[in-house]
Amino acid sequence: MAEFRDLDSGWAQVVEEAVAEARANVGASEHIAMSVGAEWGRRVIDWPAVPQRPRACLGRERADRLADKRDDQGDIGRRMLQDEYAEWRLVQRDGRPTRFELTTELPEYWELLARRQPQRALDVLSEFAQRPVTSREVFRVADPGELDARQRATVARKALAPGRHGRPTDLNNGVDAITCLSHTTSTLGALARLVVGSATPMFVRDSMTARTRVATASEFIGQGSGFAEDCRGSDPVVVERIVSLACDGRRIAFDDPLGIYVVGVQAHELLTPVGDPVPSEWFCFSRGTGRGGVSRYQRLTFTVPPDQGFTLADLRSRRTGEPIRFGAQIAELVQVGVYLQAGPPNVVAVTTAPQRAKTSPLCGTTSECEKLRARAQGMEPP
Amino acid sequence: MSETDPGQLQDGIYLAARTDRPAFLLATIRIHPGIGRQIAADAIERIWRLLADLRSHGVLRDLADTRGAEKPVPAPRMTFEALLGFGASFFATERVLTDEPRPALLTSLTGHGRPFPQLPWTTEDAAGRGEDDLCLQLTGRDPHAVARAIVEVWKVICDEHLPLTITDTFEGFGRDDGRSWIGFHDGVSNVEPSMRRAAVVCRGDPDWNRGGTYLAFLRCAVDLASWRRLTRTEQELLVGRDKLTGAGLQSVEMHDGVPAATAFTLPNDDPQASNAFRDPPETGDPILEASHIHRANQNRASATTVAGHRIYRQGYEYLDGFAGGGPRLGLNFISFQRELDHLRQILCIPSWLGEVNFGGRSHRLPGEPPPVELISLAAAGLYAVPPQQARFPGAEIMGPVDHDAR
């Protein structure tokens, strides 16, 4: 795609800056490399798109219901609960779901797009919103050319993913569209810190066998990392995999181009009204490519073709037997992930002396859970 | 069985080694339709007490004192464990056996074609086998220990006209060489012992199963004849291990379109304790990463990491006679997991086991092993396994005992 081709070098620079900042913040591990060598290989680390911590803290049904919650300023459930580097909206008609849209695009990419290709940004937003999107809605001026590149990036970021400093506009709050990740922890900077910070070997002594083994994510995060949160689907699996690679003495680099991608979908798990699995063709992958068998798509749309005579609301989850009511029932069938490159083992010297492990509390019992329950109480009484 | 540990996992889940319990039998039990909750609960309690008594100091029913002042013949003590599970149909609202809703992922595996994308039913009538209101897993020292236990259960059902029917049984055994029918080491890459409780024990949702677990039963028929037509190298690439030593494969090289695999070197001193055997490291080789042992654990994460989808496996082989000139054999795949979602993810995520029947790449190059459909399901069922309770596991969900109301 012309967009990605033209922005490729720009994105590489953005990533490089984010990694450099991460190294300054969490430590410059010698396991992190900025380029890939001859014997390196790609690794994929993936997780389900559905948020795990809300389910652990609130119970499955309540968490799934709240994840779709909308107030007069848009999808509040998404902003509060969808924190796995994947966010969705469930389009409904007369209270019945008709369309599921999921994005993994990082907000920093949209800053770059606004900076370098503002008209393209408006064109893509118009596709998402299925209506013409004006420059004023994004850039607050009639013509994006009235702003310099840096101003465009700042204003667009504020409109789409302002973080703690506001709410996204209708173009990214689910009312008209979702565009990119908006959760405060789902950013390129957070991802860079997560990977860089995890590239540290850690061995512990197993409590039962007394053998030395690689630390679990819970043990690593329990040290007080600050860049990873336990009990999610994403952070722990990324931490654990990278710690393991570091323990092997490997160097690790981001795959190029860096992003969070939709790695796969379990179409078999959704059933039509007559009990057949839905065709995988009903899932539409976009905003990326599938070249070389590697999925680099960052947007997934699912809807039932209009000629079928039924809608998404008439489908059932094979997993639970329940009709589709919540976006989470589809998100749990979507794998999202990050690609890394890992070099050969035993290149970086590693100390295997076991450390004392401090494990994080059980998911469902943490102070984060208490905060989540309080937030949920505010969103909806039990 | 252990009434002294209410709220704890039932027996028959061997989080430590179970070398002295190689005998297995799973029985499915139906509660007669239209039976009231209290009568059903009393019946379950009756068979549970029978099994507890039989285990601790039991007398076989037909060898009790019937003539006065005779010495009854006791069964040997502590030769088996029993575990009680509740299937999806138990929670059907029209049965009124419990007010508790069905746990979200405890569903029937029948009715909509293949229950998992790459696991077909062996025959049409296999669908539905292995599922019922209840299951009893009996594991023991010897086959006759578990067989005797289930026959005693049948006797008490008959003698006391309990509203229960044993609808099916499935037997199996643990091999003494740690291998499966396909000749490779099996059950090796299991969860670390210190992590097994974390993989298995439910933390709530539903609250009544806190401290319990979920059991998945997949009776996997193995097409051994097709498997044996593969070369040893093809088999090794599909499994991910050296067939004789069990060492994980380290690399693959193609020579004129013919693959040659190299395994990790095992240490001379206690080779089966090494990671190269127990938990082979990831290699980065796309052919090896598509092998069975790697597909079943793609993220290589621990049991405390949700997206690792770790489950604890406790399988038993079976041989079900010969038919059509070949053996009907396979594996009673039994797994315990704190959430059934983990098993589903392993078997449904395309890059895990959702796009192949056993192992290998869906888009393979010449020279790579062909996509043999090795496994089919001869029976399957999912069960909630509540924690131990004074009356019987799961008694809480059938309501309090009110003797006056009966």
Protein model, in words:
The complex is a heterodimer of chains A (382) and B (406). By secondary structure, chain A is an alpha+beta fold. Chain A has 13 helices and twelve strands. In chain A, strands 1, 6, 7 and 12 form a four-stranded antiparallel beta sheet that branches. A four-stranded antiparallel beta sheet of chain A has the order 2-3-10-9, with no helix packed on it. In chain B, strand 9 (316-323) and strand 10 form a beta hairpin. In chain B, helix 1 (37-57) crosses helix 2. With 406 residues, chain B is α+β, with helices and mostly antiparallel strands. Chain B has ten helices and eleven strands. Chain B has helices at residues 37-57, 143-159, 196-200, 224-228, 232-239, 275-278, 286-289, 292-295, 340-348, 350-354; strands spanning 23-31, 80-87, 134-140, 164-173, 213-222, 249-255, 258-263, 312-313, 316-323, 326-337, 375-385. In chain B, strands 1, 2, 3, 4, 5, 8, 9, 10 and 11 form a nine-stranded antiparallel beta sheet that branches. A two-stranded antiparallel sheet of chain B has the order 6-7. The interface between A and B is large, with 58 and 41 residues.
Biggest chain pair interface: A-B, 58 and 41 residues
Mean pLDDT of chain A: 93
Order of helices and strands of chain A: HEHHHEEHHHHHEEHHEEEEEEHEH
Assembly type of the chains comes to heterodimer
Content-based structural category of chain B: alpha+beta
- Number of helices in the DSSP assignment of chain B: 10
Tell me the Rg of chain B in angstroms. 22 Å
Distance between the termini of chain B: 26 Å
Approximately how much helix is present in the residues of chain A?
25-40%
Strand content of chain A: 15-25%
Overall geometry of chain B comes to globular
**How many strands in all of chain B?**
11
Q: Which word captures the global form of chain A?
A: globular
Largest sheet of chain B: 9 strands, antiparallel
The unreliable regions of chain A are none
Succession of helices and strands of chain B: EHEEHEHEHHEEHHHEEEHHE
